[in-house]
Amino acid sequence: MTHVFHRHLHHTPPVAIAASGMTIRDAAGRDYLDASGGAAVSSLGHGHPDVIAAMHAQVDRLAYAHTSFFTTEVAEQLADELIGGAPEGMSHVYLVSGGSEAVESALKMARQYFVEIGQPQRTHFIARRQSYHGNTLGALAVGGNAWRREPFAPILVPATHVSPCYPYREQHEGESADQYGVRLAAELEAAILAQGADRVIAFVAETVGGATAGVLTPVPGYFKAVREVCDRHGVLLILDEVMCGMGRCGTLYACEQEGVVPDLVTVAKGLGGGYQPIGAVLAQRRIVEAMSQGSGFFQHGHTYLGHPVACAAALAVQRVIRRDGLLAKVRDDGEAFGAMLREALGDHPHVGDIRGRGFFWGVELVAERATKSPFAPGLKLHARIKNDAMARGLLCYPFGGTVDGRQGDHVLLAPPFIATRQDLQEIATRLA
Ligand code: PMP
């Protein structure tokens, strides 16, 4: 009998007792190769000595100081580090305790910005179907899975959902990638106009779609077109990089590869690398300046904002990534990993698509390749794959089989950046 409120109430998962490098061990002595970093979290693998040492040193020096009284050296250093690597124009970092908190904070920051500049009528968000932004009420509202929102719909903030950038399923035959990107931007513009352009706060999107769509890499030019539409109507662009950011796609921020600067960008997961719960919102100078010249106060906050030990872990993760040249490694080995996946799975009759960037890959499963028809949701194929993979000592992150029936099943792979080519090959082989 367990007293832990497990999410799946009829299933108590195995007990994890130890972890090192690429592996997690359970109480039965079974080792699991971590091909997903949990949920794209453990970017440096498990038990990294530099991160552990940094956390120890911080806990010895100062474990906690409330942000209404103090800032800390380590929070300042982390913010400097994150801004140092961020796209031009980002100037401030709001440090929270995870992804949903980051998204929630970004939504409120965007709303308050418009209140401060005298546009309080902007109350509506636009986001994308098949996105995931978290489970708190605001983050859930912009999330793009109708079945997740449905039970909570009456208490969610107003949001409209447009198409994701999903070339495998939604790019028309004969339509170029450019044309597809332009079509999606036009759909966004139509959604903004349908609300009334002066009523929309922001467009919220994952730069590279994550778990709930099996890694959706944007077509070139899509985000540039989106940025133009947003600018035309004074709508903010919030990019959610909780999953795809912090090096996962081979650049510190995934949006660097899209040539756009968002107004706000959220990060978490790989920020703390699994060593501490931490997330952040990076904000453009103009947003912060408007708030600073207005009320001078962000009407939001959490007790554990900028927790020193979490900041120390995140700072150590950043320093290891830089010192060990891990972004270049992720880019190079990521390409090789994609080739390994295609080699191992490309001809499989039930693999429809293999797509990704860096150490962030999705495998989409279909009942039939020719028609791209998904497996019936009732089969819960993703859950079976997860369990079968665990039985074979592999941790991957499958998702799918939801109510619209179209979304199908995907397997997400997000290995730690320390994975060797041999590890990557082992992942591809075992998954196949
Ligand atoms: N945004 C994205 C893109 C995510 O993938 C997630 C988590 N899967 C979240 C937000 C929410 O993060 P958390 O689970 O840390 O609250």
Largest sheet: 7 strands, mixed
Low-confidence stretches: none
Helix coverage percent = 25-40%
Distance between the termini: 36 Å
Which architecture of the largest domain per CATH?
Answer: 3-Layer(aba) Sandwich
Order of helices and strands: EEEHHHEHEHHEHHEHEEEHHHEEHEEEH
Question: In what order do the strands lie side by side in the largest sheet?
Answer: 4-10-9-8-7-5-6
What's the multimeric state? Answer: single chain
CATH superfamily of the largest domain: Type I PLP-dependent aspartate aminotransferase-like (Major domain)
In DSSP terms (H or I, runs of 4 or more residues), the helix count works out at 14
How many individual β-strands?
Answer: 15
Hetero groups in this structure are: 4'-deoxy-4'-aminopyridoxal-5'-phosphate
Strand percent estimate: 15-25%
Instruction: Output mean pLDDT.
Output: 96
CATH class of the largest domain: Alpha Beta
- Give the count of structural domains: 2
Q: What is the radius of gyration? A: 21 Å
- CATH topology category name of the largest domain: Aspartate Aminotransferase, domain 2
Helices and strands in order:
Layout: E1 16-20, E2 23-26, E3 31-34, H1 37-40, H2 49-61, H3 73-84, E4 90-96, H4 99-116, E5 124-128, H5 137-142, H6 146-149, E6 159-162, H7 167-170, H8 177-195, E7 200-206, H9 222-232, E8 236-240, E9 264-267, E10 279-284, H10 285-293, H11 308-323, H12 326-345, E11 351-357, E12 360-365, H13 381-391, E13 394-395, E14 397-400, E15 409-413, H14 421-431
Parallel strand pairs: 3-13, 5-6, 5-7, 7-8, 8-9
Antiparallel strand pairs: 1-2, 2-3, 4-10, 9-10, 11-12, 12-15, 14-15
The structure holds 4'-deoxy-4'-aminopyridoxal-5'-phosphate.
Residues 39, 98-100, 103, 132-134, 206, 210-211, 240, 242-243, 268 line the site of 4'-deoxy-4'-aminopyridoxal-5'-phosphate.
